[in-house]
Amino acid sequence: MKKKKPIIGYTGSDRFDALQWLIALSIRLAGGKPLRLRPSSPKYETKIDGLLLGGGVDISPSLYAHQVKLSYDYDLARDDMEIKWMKTVTDNDLPILAICRGVQMLNVWRGGTLHADISKIHEAENYPTGLIGYLLYRKKITIGDDTLLHNILGTDRLMVNSLHRQALDDLGDGVKVTALEDNGIAQAMEVPKMKFCLGLQFHPEALIYRKDCRRIFERFIQAC
Known about the structure:
The protein is α/β, with parallel strands linked by helices. It has one domain: Class I glutamine amidotransferase (GATase) domain (Rossmann fold), CATH 3.40.50. The chain has helices at residues 18-29, 76-91, 101-109, 118-121, 131-136, 148-153, 211-223; strands spanning 7-11, 33-37, 50-53, 96-99, 114-115, 139-143, 157-160, 167-168, 176-181, 186-190, 197-200. Strand 1, helix 1 (18-29) and strand 2 form a beta-alpha-beta unit. The longest helix has 16 residues, at 76-91. The radius of gyration is 16 Å and the shape is globular.
């Protein structure tokens, strides 16, 4: 009998973009069935086998007691949707893969906080700001031993992209940082008490031409 493909709910904004397309492709290539979850169609009634929290606009600072920028267009409906889905999957101990904004949301939901703008903290870093830079820039991260990410990749070094402006600050309940870039910014985290809960500050879906990044999605789907 053919094994049923696990249904993976992946979150994003109402506007479909290239990274959402790449996430759906990555899920399919790894053997899963992608289900798009967005504010206008959150599909709370649908049974999923795993949750992928995708990238996007900044999380509202009101969720972690920081000052809101009046000129910034936050996606409050998406924030609310992802909080509801995280509660559902956590209550049922379903696997979670969180990417970029997703890892930030996961940390905030568990009581943590964020650095609002890493360029203000690490002014000497030459982080990319334009499309070409986002596509081509790479930085080295160091992965801790005896961690989920190390177990998946089998290495303690990885070159990754950098599409984020925010980063983890205070850690939420049960959150463990498992990879750092050289300046100390968290690049991966996990919640060891959960069945499978991996957060990545970089975007592996934009690197799926690489076997190591495809392996991340494969292990996530296997856990589902």
